[in-house]
Design a protein that fits this description.
This is Fibronectin type III domain-containing protein. The chain is of the alpha+beta class. 15% of the residues lie in helices and 42% in strands.
């Protein structure tokens, strides 16, 4: 009988300790609350183009949609010449970007465009044939 009472007391103690260690959270699961922004969006045209010698220059028009006042644009050229990042762009456009495909690598070259800022990031892809 004493063993039964001891087991019950130990079991009750374990239940109490476990109940003190757990928390029940009610309400919005988004902690801390995040501001509601319209998602930023980048669009780049043309989506594909062919470049010719001697410069092998590609030109794109970039458009930004969003609620922020200043966005950064980063593009990876896809031709082993690295990437380019620039900031300070307001929503709108067109903003003109160009790159000369003079580095190594073989065609097609796939570019990845990243827009960062309020409501971002947003991504776009383009392709260049040489």
């Amino acid at each position: 009988m004493k063993i039964k009472k001891s087991l019950i007391i130990v079991f009750a103690g374990v239940v109490m300790i476990l109940s003190l260690g757990s928390k029940v959270v009610l309400g919005n699961q988004q902690i801390p609350p995040q501001p509601n922004y319209v998602p930023a969006e980048i669009s780049v045209s043309p989506s594909a183009q062919t470049v010719f010698s001697p410069q092998y220059r590609a030109v794109w028009n970039v458009y930004i949609q969003g609620e922020g006042s200043s966005y950064c644009i980063q593009v990876n050229w896809g031709d082993f010449c690295g990437s380019y990042k620039t900031c300070g762009y307001a929503p709108g456009g067109p903003y003109q970007f160009y790159h000369d495909f003079l580095c190594g690598g073989s065609s097609p070259f796939r570019q990845t465009w990243t827009l960062s800022g309020v409501g971002g990031p947003s991504y776009a892809t383009t392709t260049v044939y040489k």
